[in-house]
């Protein structure tokens, strides 16, 4: 019901743009031009956001096209006012009853999810059984899975590239945004709110599913805490204090804009706190990542801190068994994830060199490079594919095939780390639970059957393989480097295999 109400909001309300509203959302420099170009729209009432946005874009694009054709580049309006104007023009049933709609969508949806989650596993003992999940669709890759996947993909497409159509959703969280940051909600605040809520609610599901397992409880609590505090609340509070929005747990190259000129200037010009942000970010790259990964493996970040991993581990947990375990997928994974890392490193080096050369190296082409990276990696891969494909190809698509930070962490973990998953091959009964539940596509059973330690760059140390093992064959450990990589045969009597 909540989902139906939530989607219905996109088709409700009326939109009327006045001179006062236009002046409120546009800069003083562009107001006069916009007022002239959008004159046919002023005072006109539209029955939907789709009709309003269509007219707005028609007049707005027509003006910019004329200026470009006449090579009047200084008159082109580069700022996109579509979202702000549509939101300002909104009026009627949605804007006047935001509290009611918030209750019928977000709050009702949360309550419904909890009513479903809390009774789960009530009559079962702790631990995940070998229930043949690998042989069934488990509501994924079937009609429900495909439908959900398509819905998530469309949601991300609209969020990233057509936000003006979802202004009614942002109206719901406007009061919360004004309370935290003092400003109106953007599509990104809406996304952050839903993202955080999904991790919190599905985190409760993790508590229920893996109850009795201390490692899973602590790990889930950690990603819930870091998402709520570091990724959602703290950045908004910084904005309220007139400081740059900053997620202290986001690390380059995942935070690929960290060295962009506007980010650096924003931090450096923000006093002590801004300089701390800049220095903190660099220290994480140079010291934090290699040191923490050396002692604990990449799990310290990917499974305990990262927001992408947090959503994958909580909201994406029902689909973890859909990860491709084939050697072909592993080959593609290694090529793709390291290619993205190289792309991020090269882009960053070019950006820094261009900045210190006074933009003489590439000029404005640097911006084009940033836009393409943001479009291909930051939006299309990390968002549309990374989350939209949960019900189709598993919950760690982005982490396996696209995350540059995961690649950086993985290189350190593979060649210079104390972390490994140890196995006791003599106890393995080849049930396949470990491989089935591995979200990173690792054939864990292959190692367990041979009694070999699992030392893989892709392993995020989620520990679920150990949690679902009925014989306690697997164990996450940090030990001396000398004993990490093993090739121990299985001993049966006096014979070795």
Span from first to last CA? 58 Å
Overall shape: globular
Q: How much helical structure, as a percent, in the residues? A: 55-70%
Average residue-wise pLDDT = 90
Query: Strand percentage, roughly?
Result: under 5%
Structural category: mainly alpha
Multimeric status of the protein: single chain
For the biggest β-sheet, the strand order reads 2-1-3
Instruction: Compute the number of helices.
Output: 24
The radius of gyration computed from the alpha-carbon positions, rounded to a whole number of angstroms, is 25 Å
Largest sheet: 3 strands, antiparallel
State the total count of DSSP E strands: 7
Low-confidence stretches: none
Care to describe what's here?
With 497 residues, the protein is mainly α. Among the domains are: 2-91, no CATH class; 417-496, Alpha-Beta Plaits (2-Layer Sandwich). It is 60% helix and 4% strand. It has 24 helices and seven strands. It has helices at 2-8, 19-25, 28-37, 49-69, 82-89, 93-96, 98-117, 143-161, 167-172, 174-181, 187-209, 214-240, 261-268, 271-296, 299-302, 307-314, 327-356, 365-388, 390-393, 397-401, 404-415, 433-437, 444-450, 464-468; strands at 14-16, 45-46, 90-91, 419-423, 474-478, 491-492, 495-496. It has a three-stranded antiparallel β-sheet with strand order 2-1-3. Strands 4-5 form a two-stranded antiparallel sheet. Helix 8 (143-161) packs antiparallel against helix 18 (365-388), helix 13 packs across helix 14 (271-296) and helix 17 runs antiparallel to helix 18. It is globular and about 80 Å long. The termini are far apart.
């Amino acid at each position: 019901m909540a989902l139906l109400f939530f989607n219905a909001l996109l088709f409700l309300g009326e939109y009327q743009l006045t001179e006062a509203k236009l002046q409120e959302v546009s800069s003083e420099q562009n107001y006069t031009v916009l007022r002239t170009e959008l004159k046919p729209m002023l005072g006109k009432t539209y029955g939907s956001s789709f009709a309003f946005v269509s007219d707005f874009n028609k007049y707005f694009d027509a003006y910019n096209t004329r200026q470009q054709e006449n090579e009047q580049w200084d008159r082109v309006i580069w700022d996109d006012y579509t979202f702000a104007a549509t939101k300002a023009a909104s009026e009627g049933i949605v804007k006047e009853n935001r509290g009611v709609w918030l209750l019928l969508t977000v709050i009702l949806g949360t309550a419904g999810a909890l009513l479903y989650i809390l009774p789960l596993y009530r009559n079962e003992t702790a631990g995940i059984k070998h229930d043949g999940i690998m042989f069934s669709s488990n509501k994924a890759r079937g009609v429900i899975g495909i439908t959900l996947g398509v819905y998530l993909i469309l949601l991300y497409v609209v969020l990233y590239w057509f936000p003006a159509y979802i202004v009614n959703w942002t109206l719901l969280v406007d009061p919360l945004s004004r309370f935290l940051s003092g400003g109106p909600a953007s599509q990104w605040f809406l996304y952050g709110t839903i993202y955080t809520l999904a991790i919190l609610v599905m985190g409760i599901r993790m508590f229920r599913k893996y109850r009795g397992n201390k490692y899973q409880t602590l790990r889930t609590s950690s990603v819930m805490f870091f998402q709520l505090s570091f990724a959602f609340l703290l950045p908004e509070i910084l904005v309220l204090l007139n400081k740059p929005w900053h997620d202290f747990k986001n690390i380059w190259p995942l935070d690929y804009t960290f060295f962009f000129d506007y980010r650096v200037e924003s931090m450096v010009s923000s006093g002590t706190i801004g300089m701390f942000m800049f220095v903190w970010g660099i220290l994480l790259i140079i010291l934090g990542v290699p040191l923490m990964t050396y002692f604990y493996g990449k799990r310290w970040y990917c499974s305990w801190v990262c927001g992408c991993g947090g959503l994958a581990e909580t909201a994406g947990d029902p689909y973890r068994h859909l990860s491709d375990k084939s050697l072909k997928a592993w080959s593609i994974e290694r090529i793709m994830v390291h290619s993205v890392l190289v792309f991020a490193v090269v882009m960053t080096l070019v950006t820094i060199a261009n900045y210190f050369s006074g933009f003489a190296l590439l000029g404005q082409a640097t911006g084009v490079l940033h836009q393409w990276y943001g479009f291909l990696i930051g939006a299309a891969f990390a968002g549309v594919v990374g989350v939209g494909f949960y019900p189709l190809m598993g919950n760690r698509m982005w982490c396996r095939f696209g995350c540059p930070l995961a690649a950086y962490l993985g290189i350190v973990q593979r060649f210079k780390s104390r972390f490994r998953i140890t196995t006791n091959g003599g106890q393995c009964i080849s049930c396949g639970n470990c491989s089935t539940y591995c979200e990173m596509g690792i054939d864990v059973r292959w190692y367990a059957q041979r009694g070999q330690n699992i030392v893989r760059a892709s392993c995020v140390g989620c520990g679920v393989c150990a949690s679902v093992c009925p014989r306690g064959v697997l164990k996450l450990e940090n030990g001396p480097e000398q004993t990490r990589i093993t090739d121990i045969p299985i001993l049966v009597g006096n014979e070795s295999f």
